Automatic annotation (TrEMBL), chain B:
SMART domains reported for this sequence: Iso_dh
Similarity comment: Belongs to the isocitrate and isopropylmalate dehydrogenases family.
Keywords: Transit peptide
PANTHER family reported in the protein's UniProt record: CYTOKININ RIBOSIDE 5'-MONOPHOSPHATE PHOSPHORIBOHYDROLASE, DECARBOXYLATING DEHYDROGENASES-ISOCITRATE, ISOPROPYLMALATE, TARTRATE
Name assigned to this protein: Isopropylmalate dehydrogenase-like domain-containing protein
Domain Isopropylmalate dehydrogenase-like: 71-396
NCBIfam families given in the database record: mito_nad_idh (TIGR00175)
A family per Pfam: Iso_dh
Length: 369, 457
């Protein structure tokens, strides 16, 4: 028998045994251009805390798959005041980057490197895909939410100053330009991924001018996509609805701060930030990292015991593979990861298991076809 | 009460038959409001003739736990407000809470002294009484005036919003072990309302954090934790990004934490807080936060326990002012139809009582509400049942074994019967007396009526 039919038979056998039928393999219909298979360079930033652990996991899996990418590794830590110039060069050249979290010291004088990276590369959209993983029990069912968050302005402009001792002001800046482009990206995403509804999250009843401008931009863009339903929801009501009835949300577009909260809440109800993929994308560059809460690099104990959850970064790297136009590899990786999760005996502590990172990686590699 | 069962003359006759106990006088003094005109006149005559009996006064003292009534302001509000305010008044009276309500309504025009629809008198009343209970108010749409909530907040200097969120036993949501309090700074932060358009297409909004306001709310949070026996206070922030503003807030919290070494203090970044709240809310105890995060997190916690229809809240101001309010909307679509759920306003009233240190009555009413919801027989439409507001309120009053002041347990059966009769209590008290005693004590005429009324036959 040819190796191909052997593989197909193995799949059939496995599929009939597997509990969920939604883990499918598809026959590849993507027709590449000649030369697409040559290896692409991707900048890799391991980061702090659990970062090196999980990026190492990705490296191992990529090698096992013989994926046509190679990593250029750079050491960046959260205490540095700026991202080194050579790293920026590399990202600008490769256009794609995969990174672990960079820890920002709380209250110190150093501004967050995660935010800096996003601003310099103008990665204006941050995307988190929160969905129920089959086989992972959570309190909420039917969750499939994509949170698209404006990444450059809003409350995170970083413009703070002390007016007099004891009084500090922080500026929140909203511009029509940024609001429009994030709204356009959100609707475009919905259109290209066959999503039916876009919800804008705001607090315009209190911040009438600022969030009002954001809403105006969203409404204008909504008119150009008549096939997609558009509605608006106030952020506190939104959080309440997320914990009560998350199935009503599809794609959500939000300014910076609310997006952070909504993304973390949505990630929490769907299984935790350890498993949700996401990334930041701009007009020219894309940086993939753990979906929500990228600044959370985990506790020291998790690092020492090697119990970090690599699933989020593995699924993000699958998104990266698709971005680089290697859909077959992305499919294989996602299928393997989902199978490992649904089988249930190889899970890290945040999902209720006892495995180490390495064990999960080995399981994923074993499940690759 | 008697009114619904007997005519005035019949009541008069019944009371005459069972009139010779001194405690009857005391009971009638206490339950004055519940009596019909005839009985009131009758009682007054009795008081006149037996005013020197010592038993009467001692029993009277047993009923009223506090001799001076407290005046409190009540804003029934719009929409379903008046119905649920009525419910609160009934429950409080039956529980013997010594409060006289001063009701104020939102007027139809703008009062020039306050620049809003709330009159100067209303605000003065709250300032004077220092406690208030507010129902849902709908801000009329239009320009040129401040929102009602904003007016109250600014004029009364309400700096902290306290919202306890706990899972109600018997009302099942996805989360069963929620037991936390959110304390939110209420005056500054992102809601200062200072916005302006720099150039076309660019808007700036100011977020202000001051040392004074942060210290105030941190002090209140730790004080609350200590007085309510809570062990941990968590400050929620985003100081890794907003370093100076949230950094100042954290510094103030740390300073206050040092003064309370027995309470554990921790700081949690808001992303982690959101995630931990939806995964495992039992991890949190008391949360203290600036304005915007507080708004979002307190609504999130309300969602965890069952929604805004069940959540109480209390605004604390300077000089010990406390304004408890129900945070849900005025629901104009069910206004006037007797369908509203009064739980939020009732629980807010309980918070108000605790603030007034009337802990015994607060506990009684609280247990009655919890037991009624836990029982599940009487639930309003928003909880999935089909009872009306009045039915639900009556059900709470039915759990009246809780309302039995401990001193009444030593009463004779006749005294209990009389008290039950007079006070509008239902079956619980009468069930403690045997049917034979009822017949003997209450006299032939009254017995069947009484027993029927209280569901004994």
């Amino acid at each position: 028998m040819s190796p191909r039919s052997l593989t197909l038979l193995k799949n059939l056998a496995r599929n009939s045994n597997a509990s969920s039928s939604c883990i499918q393999t598809r026959s590849v219909t993507y027709m590449p251009r000649p030369g697409d298979g040559s290896p692409r360079a991707v900048t890799l930033i391991p980061g702090d805390g659990i970062g090196p652990l999980v990026t190492n996991a990705v490296e191992q899996v990529m090698e096992a798959m013989h994926a046509p990418i190679y990593f250029e590794k750079y050491d960046v830590h959260g205490e540095m005041s700026r991202v080194p110039a050579e790293v920026m060069e590399s990202i600008r050249k490769n256009k794609v980057c995969l990174k672990g979290g960079l820890k920002t010291p709380v209250g110190g004088g150093v501004s967050s490197l995660n935010v800096q990276l996003r601003k310099e590369l103008d990665l204006f959209a941050s995307l988190v895909n929160c969905f129920n993983l089959p086989g992972l029990p959570t309190k909420h069912e039917n969750v499939d939410i994509v949170v698209i968050r404006e990444n450059t302005e809003g409350e995170y402009a970083g413009l703070e100053h002390e007016v007099v001792p004891g009084v500090v002001e922080s500026l929140k800046v909203i511009t029509k330009f940024c609001s429009e482009r994030i709204a356009k990206y959100a609707f475009e995403y919905a259109y290209l991924n066959n999503r039916k509804k876009v919800t804008a999250v705001h607090k315009a009843n209190i911040m009438k001018l600022a969030d009002g401008l954001f809403l105006e931009s969203c409404r204008e863009v909504a008119k150009k996509y008549p096939g997609i339903t558009y509605n608006e929801i106030i952020v506190d009501n939104c959080c309440m609805q997320l914990v009560a009835k998350p199935e009503q949300f599809d794609v959500m577009v939000t300014p910076n701060l609310y997006g952070n909260l909504v993304a973390n809440t949505a990630a929490g109800i769907a299984g935790g930030t350890g498993v949700m993929p996401g990334g930041n994308v701009g007009a020219d560059h894309a940086v993939f990292e753990q979906g929500a809460s990228a600044g959370n690099v985990g506790k020291d104990k998790i690092v020492r015991e090697n119990k970090a959850n690599p699933v989020a970064l593995l699924l993000s790297s699958a998104m990266m593979l698709r971005h680089l136009q290697f859909p077959s590899f992305a499919d294989r990786l996602e299928t393997a990861v989902k199978r490992v999760i649904s089988e249930g005996n190889c899970r890290t502590k945040d999902l209720g298991g006892q495995s180490t990172t390495q064990q999960v990686v080995d399981a994923v590699i074993a499940n690759l076809e | 009460t008697l009114r619904s069962v007997l005519t005035e003359e019949e009541t008069f006759t019944v009371l005459q038959n069972i009139s010779d106990s001194n405690s009857f006088v005391a009971a009638s003094l206490w339950c004055f409001e519940e009596m019909t005109m005839a009985a009131a006149t009758f009682a007054k005559r009795l008081i006149g003739s037996r005013s020197s009996s010592t038993t009467a006064t001692s029993v009277a003292r047993a009923f009223c736990s506090s001799t001076t009534p407290i005046t409190a302001t009540m804003f029934p509000g719009d929409g379903i407000g008046p119905e649920i305010a009525e419910s609160v008044k009934q429950v409080f009276t039956t529980a013997g809470v010594p409060i006289n309500w001063e009701e104020h309504y939102v007027s139809a025009e703008i009062d020039p002294r306050t620049q809003s629809f709330l009159t100067w008198e209303s605000l003065e009343s709250v300032r004077r009484n220092k406690v208030g209970l507010k129902g849902p108010m709908a801000t009329p749409i239009g320009k040129g005036h401040r929102s009602l909530n904003l007016t109250l907040r600014k004029e009364l200097n309400l700096y902290a919003n306290v919202r306890p969120c706990y899972s109600l036993p018997g009302y099942k949501t996805r989360y069963d072990d929620v037991n936390l309090i959110t304390i939110r700074e209420n005056t500054e932060g992102e809601y200062s309302g200072l916005e302006h358009q720099v150039v076309r297409g660019v808007v700036e909004s100011l977020k202000i954090i001051t040392r004074q306001a942060s210290l105030r709310v941190a002090e209140y949070a730790f004080h609350y934790a200590k007085t309510h026996g809570r062990e941990r206070v968590s400050a929620i922030h985003k100081a890794n990004i907003m370093q100076k503003t949230d950094g100042l807030f954290l510094k103030c919290c740390r300073e206050v934490a040092e003064k309370y070494p027995e309470i554990t203090y921790e700081e949690v970044v808001i992303d982690n807080c959101c995630m931990m709240l939806v995964k495992n809310p039992a991890l949190f105890d008391v949360l203290v936060m600036p304005n915007l995060y507080g708004d979002i997190i307190s609504d999130l916690c309300a969602g965890l326990v069952g929604g805004l229809g069940l959540t109480p809240s209390c605004n604390i101001g300077e000089d010990g002012v406390a304004l408890a309010e129900a945070v849900h909307g005025s629901a104009p679509d069910i206004a006037g139809k007797n369908l509203a759920n009064p739980t939020a306003l009732l629980l807010s009233g309980v918070m108000m009582l605790r603030h007034l240190k009337l802990n015994e009555q607060a506990e009684q009413i609280h247990s009655a509400i919890i037991n009624t919801i836990a029982e599940g027989k009487y639930r309003t439409a928003d909880l999935g049942g089909s009872s009306t507001t009045t039915d639900f309120t009556k059900a709470i009053l039915t759990h009246s074994s809780i309302f039995l002041p401990s001193s009444m347990k030593s009463f004779s059966p006749k005294e209990k019967l009389v008290t039950a009769f007079m006070g509008g209590f239902t079956s619980q008290l009468v069930k403690e007396i045997s049917i034979e005693e009822c017949v003997k004590e209450a006299g032939c005429y009254a017995s069947n009526v009484v027993l029927q009324r209280f569901g004994c036959i």
